[in-house]
Amino acid sequence: MEKAPIPKNEKERLLSLYKLGLLDTKPEERFDRITRTATKIFNVPISTLTLIDAKREWFKSCVGLPVREGDRAISFCGHALLANDVFVIPDTKKDKRFLDNPMVIGKPFIRFYAGVPIVNADGERVGVFCVKDTKPRKFSKNDKEILKNLAAWAELEVNSRNLSLALAEEKKLQKKLTEQYNEAERSKAKDEAILASVGDGMIVVDKNRKIIFFSKSTEEITKWKAEDAVGRHTSEIMQMEDEKGHPIPANQRPIHQALATRKTITTIPTTSYYLVFKDGRRFPATITATPVIYKKGIIGAILIFRDVTKEKEIDKAKSEFISLASHQLKTPPTAIKLLTERLLSGKMGEFNENQKEYFREIRSSNQRMIDLVNALLNVSRIELGAFTIQVSKKNVSAVISGVLDELQSLIEKKKLKLKTALEKNMMLMLDESLFRIIINNLVTNAINYTAEGGSIRVESKIAEKGEMLGKNILKEKSFVFIVSDTGQGIPQKEQSRIFTKLFRADNAIEQHTDGTGLGLYLSKSILDHCGGSIWFTSRENEGSVFYAAIPIAGMKAKSSEKMLIGR
Amino acid sequence: MTENNKTKILIVEDEEILLRVFKEELNEEGFDVVTATNGEEAVTLAKTKKPGLILLDIILPRKNGFEVLEILKASPETKNIPVIMISVQGNDENITKALSLGASDYIVKSQHSMVEIINKIKGFLYGRN
């Protein structure tokens, strides 16, 4: 007996069969009428519509057999599956392949078989339509034709199911596609809304600085249409110049710098970048250029800019206000100073000692007022951000020594011992006047709050990143200025407020009535603005140590209209 | 120049009381003093009185100190008169601006005593010769 062969594409065939979803389903009239018709036409007892599964033949429709399935290996349909035409066995007993087949020598004693493969819409053979008899018989050409037609009918029924399945599948797919499309459209609309709502100008360029995106607001600002601008160089849309109208050199432009350094470059409102357009319009702008990096390569940059005419005007107004306030506040005390001096000089007549003492008190009160006004004006400038930090290379030790010289008489008057340990010939990028304010403040404090006969130590050094100084670990390599004294120290509970405006510790007020309470606030503000830091350690009645650090790269520059008042 | 020869000084200052103090002090030192309280008056007096030195305040009515300075330096009859700016303001940019416009020096009123100011003026006038 020859077992039913397994075709080469069995896997695909099985897949196709399973996709049909017909296996193991209930009998259906549309199939049963075909097998019935077959038995009547050919006058045979058995006709089946067989589906060939991996290991079995299963009858979707069956006339004349008590079972609904059988073993594939011994099935006739299993053979017929591979036939290219009608597969006929006129007498099973006379055919080597089948004479000892269990279904021949036993129930149902098949002697005649004719079957036609049934093909699925995808071209796979899923089963067979057949007729069987218990007697051998001839099968004419006509008979074969009829059987083929019946099989075609069966195939149609099989595929109509296939078709409706396919249609249902297609419908599902369509729905999914529509949903995805809508989602994409919604996303796109959202993105467009976001981009359009960005009031600032936005231009995206590729790595050659050619424009690839031009936002709606940019159209309004530049008066260029997006479709005209795309593909052009940014320089065709707008030029960049400084306040005086001189063009900004290419290597100082934000996009150039961003593409070269791979960092986001932002100009601050007070820097003078003016954008100029072809119609002659011109305004100061703050510009941010961000490089776009993809897989470690720069593929372009995003340029965002905003008209800051208003900000500049406000800035100017602030500066002018301070100038005016400054002048108005300083004029009367200056007059008092010169007048009291004249009175004390004797040129206005002689006064008695008591009267002279009063004049001296007026003079010193007045001086305090002048100091306070200066300090308050500096504070105003700091808070309004209206001051500059202009750096240049300076010899730090020389500057410190200069300040110490100026304070020499004060030190001697209080009979204080001064020790110095200054790093010689240290050069640092500094704003000298601001640096002096800080040094002056720290040393003057040490002098003022140390009783007669005490000592002060002034030190300067380079400290490494991670070094611990005064219970503080340095975040980067810095120049550090240290002032220690054997003075009254700062009480523990008041230490947290020592840098706040106008704050003076109780013991400080008792010892030295004249302080403004602004010195440390000012020093800290200056250091905060230029990238430095300030801290201290202190014990009441033992002394204090103040540390001021500036990163080794120097003070960070800052531009604005005004400068702070130095001494 | 000897101290007996009365050198004429023009003081331009809008605060009357300060003007009076300056005038009295400078008179006592032997200088002849001419005063102006606004910018326009300053220019006129500079041209007519031809002082040997001008003390010029910055904040003034009718043309401020910088404007006066520019005019004086632009006019052939006054451009060689040395000008010392005096002001309550002591910030670097004012100083730079004054010097760049042609001022010979800059004094901050509130930072110096009268004695120091007088010495500066004397040093300036006599030192030059």
UniProtKB/TrEMBL annotation, chain A:
User: Which chemical reaction does it catalyze?
Assistant: ATP + protein L-histidine = ADP + protein N-phospho-L-histidine
- One Gene Ontology CC term in the entry: plasma membrane
Instruction: Check the record and name the InterPro entries matching this protein.
Output: BphY/WalK/GraS-like (IPR050351), GAF (IPR003018), GAF-like_dom_sf (IPR029016), HATPase_C_sf (IPR036890), HATPase_dom (IPR003594), His_kinase_dom (IPR005467), HisK_dim/P_dom (IPR003661), HisK_dim/P_sf (IPR036097)
User: Where, by residue number, does the polypeptide cross the bilayer?
Assistant: none
What class does this enzyme belong to in the EC scheme? transferase
PROSITE patterns on file: HIS_KIN (PS50109), PAC (PS50113), PAS (PS50112)
Q: The Histidine kinase domain covers which part of the protein?
A: 324-554
- Catalytic activity, EC: 2.7.13.3
Q: Which residues form the PAC domain?
A: 269-320
> Does the keyword field hold Cell inner membrane?
no
State one molecular function term (GO).
phosphorelay sensor kinase activity
Any GO BP annotation: cellular response to phosphate starvation
Which Gene3D superfamilies did the record assign? 1.10.287.130, 3.30.450.40, Histidine kinase-like ATPase, C-terminal domain, PAS domain
Q: Which residues form a coiled coil?
A: none
| Pfam families linked to this entry | GAF, HATPase_c, HisKA, PAS
Which residue intervals define the domain PAS in the entry? 187-242
Question: What's in the keyword line of the UniProt record?
Answer: Kinase, Membrane, Phosphoprotein, Transferase, Two-component regulatory system
- Kinase among keywords: yes
What is the protein's name according to its record?
Answer: histidine kinase
User: Origin organism of this chain?
Assistant: Candidatus Nomurabacteria bacterium GW2011_GWF2_43_8
UniProtKB/TrEMBL annotation, chain B:
A single BP term in Gene Ontology: phosphorelay signal transduction system
Outline the extent of the Response regulatory domain.
8-124
PROSITE patterns for the chain = RESPONSE_REGULATORY
Xref: InterPro entries = Bact_response_regulator, CheY-like_superfamily, Sig_transdc_resp-reg_receiver
Q: Which residues carry this modification: 4-aspartylphosphate?
A: D57
Keywords, in A-Z order: Phosphoprotein, Two-component regulatory system
This chain belongs to the protein called Response regulator receiver protein
